[in-house]
Amino acid sequence: MPVLRILERETAHCVLQFVWKVVTRNVGLVDSLFQRYQPISRSTTAARQRSSYASAACIVRLVLRANRPDARFDDAMDEITADRKKAAALTRQVGVDFGAAMTVALAYIGDRLGIFKALAGGTPMTSPQLAERTRLSERYIREWAATMAASGYLDYNPADATFRLNPEQATVLASDDNTYFMGGAFQYAVACYRQLPKLMESFEHGGGVPFTDFGSDIVEAIERLFHTGYETWVAQQWIPAVPDIHQRLIAGGEAAEVGCGAGQCLIPVATAYPNSRFFGYDVDQTSIERARRKAAQAGVAGRVAFERIAAEELPFADRFDLVMAFNCIHDMARPRQVLAALHRIVKPDGAALWSEAQAGDRLEQNLNPQGRTMYASSTMHCMTVSLAQGGEALGSVIGEAKARAMAGEAGFSRFERLPVKNPIHQIFLLRR
Residue 24: how many CB atoms within 10 A of its CB? Predict the structure, then answer.
């Protein structure tokens, strides 16, 4: 019987039981898929991936604990007189979300094993042709491609049983040089999946999962998610929206970025302003080392320095013409102290630029697909990383009013949201 018919007929609790059975009977599936898709000689990632499906099993177990596994949904329906049509609709939504969760894992495989890249040219291929092109197992390729076609990630032509990436799909899934590319999202999600057992422990006992536990995958995922946007927006739109700072950097000034990660923002900004010097600060050593290598490759290492240090511990005062903090304040253990540090290290006539995700100040303003993404990523990464350091755990949803209040608390006398349209970020300008 097709899965969707089961989901329509069965209760929400039965759906969870179904998911639980799938997961517990297939622990390690994603890991073994890496081995089975590719030749034995390329299966060295198994040890690193071993916890992926065990993690999924853990989260389903947590949900089942909270849903009275001994109770029958029909009895509960009678007790609370629930609307059966609404319950059926929610059951279908759970089924859709279940499929989406599985699709993300398989899209991750397509991204990491180069399957999407192999289709980037738009040439239609049968599954045997695609398997030959990628040197992967045909049977796995066939089922993978069926999943992607059902998800709208590939086009399928039944006349000749071929799959292809149309230009829009290729832009989103196979070309990392544009702001629509989402390959980093799959990588980010799977890096979070692997931490589910530790996250469950944090649910039960408090604390959090340290950033370093997410490994190098999360560093690369964040870089892939944001680097093209930063290359496109920061030097071309955001900084020029502050004309006096833009002119200083053209002439030759100094700028710093806290929470700089692997240099995905600072390096292209340094390239755009060849007469200025730039300094990046982050607490993650893996990110700093990656940033230094990239700066050398970009030929800007003589003007760009990266240092491992917490932003609130920077020893400077009145030094920088511009200080930047993009999509990172909410991750930090002591975000208010960091904002106070930005106030201290920027020159009296300088400026700070701070970005957060587009969000409202109230929960009800964010009850939409974008809000779901932000709250989920906050729980699974941003918030727990802060809690692991005994931090405030702001969470990744910070509206303009909250940002304004925090900036004032840090000592900034001027706060404005830049009139720059952006699909992801809201950008705040702070002045002493």
Answer: 14
Task: Report the alpha-carbon distance of residue 178 to residue 216 in Å, rounded.
Answer: 23
Provide the angle, in degrees to the nearest 10, between the axes of the packed helices 138-151 and 29-37.
Answer: 120
User: Phi, psi at residue 33, to the nearest 5°?
Assistant: -60, -40
Instruction: Write down the pLDDT at residue 17.
Output: 53
pLDDT at 43 over 90: no
Residue 371 in 3-state DSSP?
Answer: helix
Amino acid in position 222? I
Cα distances (Å, whole numbers) of residue 217 to 39, 48, 187, 358, 359: 22, 10, 7, 25, 26
- 341: tokens are 């540090």
Give exposure, 265-300, as e/b (b: 16+ Cβ within 10 Å). Answer: bbbbbbbbbeebbbbbbbbbebbbebbbebbeeeeb
How many whole angstroms separate alpha carbon 56 and alpha carbon 412?
Answer: 44
State the burial class of residue 408 (Cβ atoms within 10 Å of its Cβ: 0-12, 13-18, 19+). Answer: middle
Convert 103-112 to b/e letters by CB count within 10 Å (16 or more is b): bbbbbbbbbb
Tokens representing 94 are: 């759970």
pTM here is 0.79
Cβ atoms within 10 Å of 330's Cβ, excluding its own: 23
* Cα–Cα dist 89/93, whole Å: 6
Residues 411 and 405: their CA atoms lie apart, in Å, by 10
pLDDT at 285 over 50: yes
Enter the tokens of residue 144: 């993978």
* CA distance linking residue 124 with residue 141, whole number of Å: 14
- What are 53-90's pLDDT values in tens digits? 444 444 444 444 444 445 454 555 555 577 899 999 99
Region 304-327 average pLDDT: 96
- Please state, in angstroms and rounded to a whole number, the distance separating the CA atoms of residues 415 and 398: 15
Q: What is the pLDDT of residues 92-129, one digit of tens each?
A: 999 999 999 999 999 999 999 999 999 999 999 999 99
Q: How far from 295 is each of 177, 220, 223, 270, CA to CA, in Å?
A: 18, 16, 14, 9
